[in-house]
TrEMBL record:
Composition skew (Low complexity), residue ranges: 55-68
Keywords assigned: Membrane, Transmembrane, Transmembrane helix
Bilayer-spanning residue ranges: 12-31
UniProt region (Disordered), positions on chain: 36-77
Protein name per the record: Lipoprotein
Domain of life: Bacteria
Species whose genome carries this gene: Nocardioides endophyticus
Amino acid sequence: MPDHQPDQRGPVLFLVLLAMVALIVIAWGVGENGANGEPSRGESSRGEPPPVVPSPSAVEPGAAPAPSDVEQSAGVVPALPGGGTKVFADNHFLVAYYGTGQTSALGVLGETDPDTMDRRLHRAARPFRQPGQPVRHVYELIVTIADGYPGKDGDYSHDIPRSEVRRYIRAAHRNDALLLLDIQPGRTSFLEAAKRWEWALRDPWVGLALDPEWRMGPRQVPAHTVGQVRAGEVNRTSGWLARIAREDGLPQKLFVLHQFRVDMIERIGQVKKRPELAMVQHVDGFGTPRQKLATYHAVARPKQFAMGFKLFYDEDVRRMQSRAVHAVRPKVRFVSFQ
């Protein structure tokens, strides 16, 4: 009886079927992810609806991308405008325009659109630049404004629109400037008001200013009395802001306390220093140079804070120029125009 050859059809058939399955899997993968391995436009890789892509008309012309999208990466602290991660490092001097958006009633910042304002700020800041002392530009934008009436919340203040704040955030990144959100809280606390702006304060270039003149007690009304704040409330607010900077890996944030009377900040010596914040005491008195310097020397605490000094276009008499400001002692590190 002749020998029978082994039947090879079984293994061959198995290999053919295996090859067919592989081709099907490859074809499915290409259809699912596209030729370059990216999720196809019709469907996301998780089976979720495709992301909505805004039309060009939905994006403001000239809008700069958020810095967290373009500068921040894991383990790297984003740089401040002009470089570095500390506000006053390399002997920087700060110059600001102060006000709120879309009106000149509260300061020079709102007299024009943000980009025109920035050009004016650069001209105003130029005389303050000295050899070995570069200048950082600051937009101080009042975002919570004190009112002479209770309003629907009964807190004697209101917030400007978020869209206006976003407008200045974009302008700050477009023009390499810091943005400082100024709070006039009325009868609410600084911390409660500041928390409404947490979304903006998470931006690496956005800091916070507290204006105790407009921090009212339960029976006080803005513009009828000068407000005041206790050190404990300042510490709770600064601690909250420092935690944001620390947890988000942000550069040092500018933190400003406005003052022109000793009693505006109760127990000021108990205000805590925080390494995540560049702490500034900003003296806001107006009048003649002699009057302004008297106010400055009455309240200044240079061992506790970097010092700020305000110049008023309308209220000052014989407004002090850059040389006179640089000659002030204790030394001024931050000047703002209103």
